[in-house]
Design brief:
heterodimer, A: Aconitase, domain 3, Aconitase, Domain 2, 3 domains, five-stranded parallel sheet, 16 helices, about 20% strand, B: alpha/beta, Aconitase, domain 4, four-stranded antiparallel sheet, 8 strands, globular
Chain lengths: ~450, ~210
């Protein structure tokens, strides 16, 4: 129903129902529009915010970094001159693009969602078809509200059982990427299904779909159900009254039927998954907290070289347990794990403890709304009392396009999504990906720790 | 470096020297670190391609070697361009001078971003790539010819058969890889789509 036209060679011209933009990947798209003398075709279907470059300690304008200030000013001007709604600093609705669109009720089942950011897959948690695009495609969507898209195959990932205590959506998706590899999903959309997925909250589902791209799948989704509808009810841009009832009927009609045929199917048992931590330089290099860092020689041949690179870069010894690895920095936040339940789960661990000496630990809420709700629940106080810093919303140290960066060889326990070389702002900095609760446990002990030890107390 | 001859129109032949970047899963953060994304124009990115890797190798990175200056064909391994959707990555490669990328496989968003700049990402087997990389490293001055129609890359002595997705092939061949105008041709159909989608019509329409 979103197909505008079949393009030569099997691609589709796909209509985009919701286009999200931010300051990093849009300025060149707007410039290209004016070069071609084009306007924005449907300005009401594009929504903007600022997230990547915002400082999280002091958001007073102008920003102290003139480049960051220029990027924000450019976005403001572009939105103003094209009539695009902008959720800016101080609007009470600013935040990471993949946090604010769902919380405002903009993201809904059955939509096509595109954004110049690979983690757009997040919105698939609502049963939307959502994927990241490059700047040329941002230009195309602004100009025509459509883009050329190759058809995707579908792999259903069925997760039985339920996650054990101390095991979160983050552990599940890290485990899946470990199983299927970082390029296993290329050419596929991932449909996540099964009892363990159905039991997840919307925020947990967003964590899962967010990282589909780390498994190579440009797009991940979960069929909408009662949990989806309850989350959406009453949100700012959610349908109301009679429209709500009509919407529910339509949304229910979108669910994959039991006879659906998939290009590939895999099945796993959610209850056997343990807290999972990455040890290497790709999100696929994850192991359970009880495992040892793999010996590259023992891995399949095609994984050996990158495993060797990873051990060297991370300065981690093969056959040593990951538990107990000393860390320097703890980061809780990002579009993967910067939502209220993420902060709540981490604060439950932190409560009554102190951050270990010498550890820099900070919490960056995913949006102004998350920050406000967390404050209402006293979550900020718990973190502050324990010695964490409590920051303003933004992408922060997930990708370090702002002042939050690792320094030198520092190693972080991070609730973000990428452990690539240099990702967190230091060319030789190191990242261990894990759930927010695991980051909290690591902050308290100053080393990688099995969060379940805190849950037993 | 080659600021003024970016790809244009039908891309059927590419001729030039090759440069090798070895390694699987080379992500776009490595191709262009995030700090260089603080810009409102792509124009300066050519200088910054692989900035951190180059700094670490202190002049011995392939992109810094004299022998590779002016090369326009990049030969890579598996899952090249994974991670972030930043078009800054292919923009940086293009502005350095790259016009064609040959590899075992490419991440999807990166592949699409290259296509929208008129840069083909062509593939062949691991074995063939290794062979090709060795040939290039042995003789960096060798001129290679890419022929889209034949899907081959060759010199007088050696020839490699490569693969390219059919859609990308057609777009490059016809010169319609810069999709904007093509998409805009369908203005009426786009309007009809807007008028029938339930979520853009107060959920009154049933499909």
């Amino acid at each position: 129903m979103h197909q505008v036209k079949e393009l030569p060679g099997g691609s589709t011209q796909l209509f985009v129902g919701l286009h999200l933009i931010h300051e990093v990947t849009s300025p060149q798209a707007f410039s290209a529009l004016s070069e071609k003398n084009l306007g924005v075709k449907f300005p009401n279907l594009t929504v903007a915010t600022v997230d990547h470059i915002v400082p999280t300690s002091n958001q007073q304008r102008p920003f102290s970094d003139p480049l960051a200030e220029e990027m924000l000013t450019t976005l403001e001007k572009n939105c103003q001159s094209h009539g695009i709604k902008f959720h800016g600093i101080g609007s009470n609705s600013q935040g990471i693009v993949h946090v604010i669109a769902p919380e405002l009720g903009l993201t809904q089942p059955g939509m096509t969602v595109a954004c110049g950011d690979s983690h757009t897959s997040t919105h698939g948690a609502f049963g939307a078809i959502a994927f990241g695009i490059g700047t040329s495609q941002v230009r195309d969507v602004l100009a025509s509200q459509s883009l050329a898209m190759k058809k995707l195959k579908v792999r259903r990932i069925w997760v039985d059982g339920s996650l054990s205590k101390g095991v979160y959506a983050k552990d599940l998706i890290l485990h899946i990427i470990r199983l299927l590899g970082v390029k296993g999903g290329v050419g596929f959309a991932y449909e996540f299904a099964g009892p363990a997925i159905e039991k997840l909250s919307m925020e947990g589902r967003m964590t899962i779909c967010n990282m589909a791209i780390e498994g190579g799948a440009r797009c991940g989704y979960i069929n909408p159900d009662k949990t989806t509808f309850e989350y959406l009810k009453g949100r700012e841009y959610s349908p109301k009254g009679q429209e709500w009832d009509n919407a529910i009927n339509w949304w229910k009609s979108l669910v994959s039927d039991s006879e659906a045929k998939y290009d590939d199917e895999i099945q796993l048992d959610g209850s056997s998954i343990e807290p999972t931590v990455t040890w290497g330089i790709t999100p696929g290099q994850g192991i359970s907290i009880k495992e040892k860092i793999p010996n590259p020689e023992m891995l399949p041949e095609n994984e050996q070289q990158i495993a060797k690179d990873a051990c060297k870069y991370m300065n981690l010894e093969p056959d040593q347990p990951i538990e107990g690895t000393l860390i320097d920095v703890c980061f809780i936040g990002s579009c993967t794990n910067g939502r209220l339940s993420d902060l709540q789960e981490a604060s439950d661990i932190v409560k009554g403890h102190r951050v270990a000496t010498g550890i820099r630990a900070f919490v960056v809420p995913g949006s102004q709304k998350v920050a406000k709700e967390a404050k209402n629940k006293g979550i900020d106080k718990i973190f502050l009392k324990a010695g964490f810093e409590w920051r303003e919303p933004g992408c922060s140290m997930c990708l370090a396009m702002n002042p939050d960066k690792l320094e030198g060889r520092q190693i972080s326990a991070s609730s973000s999504n990428r452990n690539f070389k240099g990702r967190q702002g230091s060319a030789n900095g190191r990242t261990l990906l894990m759930s927010p609760a695991m980051v909290a446990a690591a902050a308290i002990n100053g080393k990688v720790t099995d969060v379940r030890k805190f849950l037993k107390e | 470096m080659k600021q003024d001859d970016f790809p244009q129109g039908s891309i059927t032949v590419i001729k030039g020297r090759s440069i090798v970047i070895k390694g699987d899963d080379i992500d776009t953060d490595r191709i262009i670190p995030a700090r260089f994304l603080k810009c409102v124009s792509f124009s300066a990115l050519g200088e910054q391609v692989f900035a951190d890797d180059r700094k670490e190798l202190k002049g011995s990175h392939p992109f810094d070697l004299d022998q590779n200056k002016g090369a326009n064909i990049l030969v890579v391994n598996d899952n090249f361009g994974c991670g972030s959707s930043r078009e800054h990555a292919p923009q940086a490669l293009m502005r350095w001078g790259i016009r064609l990328i040959v590899g075992e496989s490419f991440a999807e968003i990166f592949f699409g971003n290259c296509l929208s700049l008129g840069i083909p990402c062509i593939t062949t087997s691991k074995q063939e790539i290794t062979k090709f990389q060795n040939l290039v490293n042995k003789n960096p001055n060798q001129i290679w010819d890419f022929n889209l129609k034949e899907l081959s890359i060759s010199n007088q002595k050696e020839s490699f058969i490569v693969k390219l997705d059919e859609g990308a092939y057609k777009m490059l061949y016809s010169g319609k890889w810069d999709a904007t105008s093509q998409l805009l041709d369908e203005e009426e159909t786009i309007k009809n789509t807007v008028n029938k989608l339930p979520y853009l019509n107060h959920f009154n329409k049933q499909i």
